[in-house]
Task: inverse folding
């Protein structure tokens, strides 16, 4: 499209969230599967990746600490059930807990980002809308939602300095939310929760993406966190993705699953080990500790990524555990059909059930995961088969950690070990771990029973404790 969009078009980008279903993105009046690239580049302020250990840079990256503004509204026929202080706690309070939310919105993003992303929302209101809620709900599309947005911007402009919410000072805000009393009534119209783009100038900045969420009967986590995913990070809805991401199906309101590990790695929230074509190695990994990726040698936009997922904590709604394999193809925009998906789960059972149904079924299955006694290999000769020469094999059973091998050649006998540079064997740990390329890959503490071999100027160690990143080398 064209750069003129910012100035001349009133762009309607609407993401609609449904109770038991998925949302829509409407761009310039038409349903699309993902934010157009312009939104990433112009509005959301894309930052590119510079090396393997850095974020990938496929999606927009906000500042590590981001401030948003939340304007709250109620109506003559739907009075506020929660105080402004309760709304502030739901959004920001550390350790917040209610029937409707395990943790605050801040807690959710802080946890799933491994403490790398902090979102704080300043709350203003209440504003009493000019019309009853029934008026705004009686709308053929989102025109009445826009009317309410305009009302609220006019009302709050004198007391809000919107330039505070242009966190990276690129001229456009990152996080503007409108949260209303009561619940959304009609899917895809009226005040149904959605995200969009305001595209108006106030206080010297352009008001960019926004989210409109409902308070519902409790103050739940799913809707606001999901809409925040669209608004701040530019993530698309993950149709045909099951329950494996908060941008996918809505399994739980009070304890939604995390953002998937591909999006997390893309933000730099979880470290990545990149496996190259010639690597033959064994890796041991604990849940949530590391993701592994294998890039198509012929096309850097395509890759496999895998990690160890345990169905506990934020993942407790999943029906299985083990290694979960993702496939990403950045030449595809969003997930527009079962056969056109930018990101999907390579289901270990090979039945491709997720490609068959958009939502809400199938949600998840134990047979989607790789683990010993079920499927211990993913390669060119398995079903499903891998592409581009990737071979993952000898995948262990699920335990506190999991082990797997990669490569089509022989893994040396000491494969599966970590390296420490030779200095002083009695030196107290923890110490840095390095791989053979000399890259620092983590820290470790040596236990009494650590098994130490000396080889080529390195100590090769087994039985390490507290290994944050157990990088296995050859
Ligand atoms: Ca102002
Ligand atoms: Ca900005
Ligand atoms: Ca399946
Ligand atoms: Zn959505």
Result:
């Amino acid at each position: 499209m064209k750069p003129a969009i910012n100035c001349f078009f009133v762009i309607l980008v609407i993401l609609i969230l449904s109770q038991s279903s998925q949302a829509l993105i409407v761009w310039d009046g038409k349903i699309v599967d993902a934010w157009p690239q312009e939104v990433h580049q112009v509005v959301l302020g894309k930052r590119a990746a510079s090396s393997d250990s850095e974020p990938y840079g496929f999606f927009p990256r906000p500042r590590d600490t981001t401030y948003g503004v939340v304007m709250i509204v109620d109506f003559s026929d739907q009075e506020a059930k929660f105080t402004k202080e309760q709304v502030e706690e739901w959004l920001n309070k550390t350790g917040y807990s209610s029937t409707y939310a395990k943790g605050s919105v801040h807690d959710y993003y802080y946890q799933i980002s491994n403490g790398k992303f902090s979102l704080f929302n300043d709350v203003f209101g209440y504003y009493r809308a000019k019309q009853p809620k029934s008026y705004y709900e009686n709308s053929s599309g989102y025109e009445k939602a826009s009317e309410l947005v305009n009302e609220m911007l006019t009302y709050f402009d004198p007391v809000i300095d919107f330039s505070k919410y242009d966190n990276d000072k690129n001229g456009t805000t990152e996080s503007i939310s409108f949260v209303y009393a009561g619940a959304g009534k009609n899917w895809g119209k009226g005040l149904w929760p959605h995200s969009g783009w305001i595209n108006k100038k106030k206080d010297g900045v352009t008001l960019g993406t926004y989210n409109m969420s409902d308070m519902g009967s409790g103050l739940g986590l799913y809707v606001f966190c999901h809409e925040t995913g669209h608004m701040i990070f530019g993530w698309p809805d993950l149709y045909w993705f099951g329950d494996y991401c908060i941008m996918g199906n809505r399994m739980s309101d009070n304890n939604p699953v995390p953002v998937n590990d591909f999006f997390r790695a893309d933000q730099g929230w979880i470290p990545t080990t990149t496996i190259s074509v010639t690597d033959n190695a064994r890796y041991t990994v604990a849940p949530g500790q590391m993701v592994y990726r294998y890039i198509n040698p012929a096309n850097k936009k395509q890759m496999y990524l895998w990690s160890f997922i345990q169905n506990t904590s934020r993942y407790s709604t999943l029906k299985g555990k083990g290694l979960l394999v993702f496939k990403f193809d950045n030449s595809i925009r969003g997930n527009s059909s079962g056969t056109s998906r930018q990101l999907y789960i390579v289901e270990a059972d090979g039945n491709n059930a997720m490609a068959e149904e958009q939502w809400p079924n199938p949600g998840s299955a134990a047979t989607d995961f790789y683990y010993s006694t079920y499927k211990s290999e993913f390669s060119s000769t398995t079903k499903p088969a891998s592409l581009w020469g990737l071979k993952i094999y000898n995948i262990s059973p699920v335990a506190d950690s999991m082990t797997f091998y990669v490569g089509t050649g022989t893994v040396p006998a000491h494969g599966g070990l970590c390296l420490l540079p030779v200095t002083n064997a009695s030196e107290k740990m923890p110490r840095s771990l390095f791989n053979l390329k000399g890259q620092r890959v983590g820290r470790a503490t040596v236990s009494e029973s650590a098994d130490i071999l000396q080889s080529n100027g390195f100590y090769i160690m087994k039985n390490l404790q507290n290994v944050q990143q157990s990088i296995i080398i050859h």
